[in-house]
Amino acid sequence: MPLERRVGGTGRGGSTVQLYALDTAGQRVLAQRQAAAGNAVRVRRPGTPGERTVRHMTAVAQLFVDLVALGRAEGFAVADYLTEPACWWPSGLGGYVKPDAYLCLTTGAVRDHWWAEVDNASEGLPTIQRKLLVYLDFLRRGQIGPGGVMPRVLISAITEKRRDDIRLEVRQLPPPAGELFAVEYAKESARYLRDVLRQ
After folding, report:
1. In this structure, are residues 43 and 27 in contact, taking their beta carbons and an 8 Å threshold?
2. Most buried of 115, 134, 139, 179, CB within 10 angstroms?
3. How does pLDDT run across 151-185, given as a tens digit for each residue?
4. In whole angstroms, what separates CA 101 from the centre of its chain?
5. How far apart are CA 88 and CA 101, in angstroms?
6. Residue 6 has pLDDT above 60, yes or no
7. What is the pTM of this model?
């Protein structure tokens, strides 16, 4: 089924591209195939994503673009980059740890595994703190993630002020929060990950 299409771009000239999505019947067929492979898929009627969702998806994609461009220029590779829900990981309690992305960076024999939370300041700080506590609990229970390790968690914040606010939240969490979480300004996140990879 075609999704709603906006006519007139930001300059009010032209049209956006036409997008198509599986309707519920197609999603049921896909869900049956996924169930046969051991994966559960929720069937729901597709709709045009809202502006907040599009901004978030674009920010998650931008981190990937920044890493690939920087890696090409500076000699490291993005070996893996999965977005949600493909990056969700079993929590060990019947649910999932749900980062926005999982990424693996490589240079030579070194591999760095990260979960990424891309923050567009659309959620309150108490919600952010609850998300971070899920990762801390996962670590404390001795769980491991992709690559057979506990990935560190990057929180990529939309503004420097938001970065500072989240850093304050991290400082109020119990150890080893300071070692598990890295909070960076979105425009500096790729360079931060490169620097960690080189250490």
Report:
1. yes
2. 115
3. 999 999 999 999 999 999 999 999 999 999 999 99
4. 3
5. 8
6. no
7. 0.79
How many Å apart are CA 197 and CA 33, to the nearest integer?
38
Average predicted confidence (pLDDT) for the chain:
88
Question: Tokens in use for 125?
Answer: 């700080």
Q: How far apart are CA 133 and CA 152, in angstroms?
A: 13
Q: Are 120 and 148 in contact (CB under 8 A)?
A: no
> Within 13 Å, how many C-alpha atoms sit on residue 56's CB side?
18
d(CA 102, CA 90): 13
Can you give the pLDDT at residue 9?
52
Rounded to 10°, the helix 125-140/160-171 angle is 50
Distance CA 169, CA 177 (A): 10
pLDDT over 60 at 11, yes or no: no
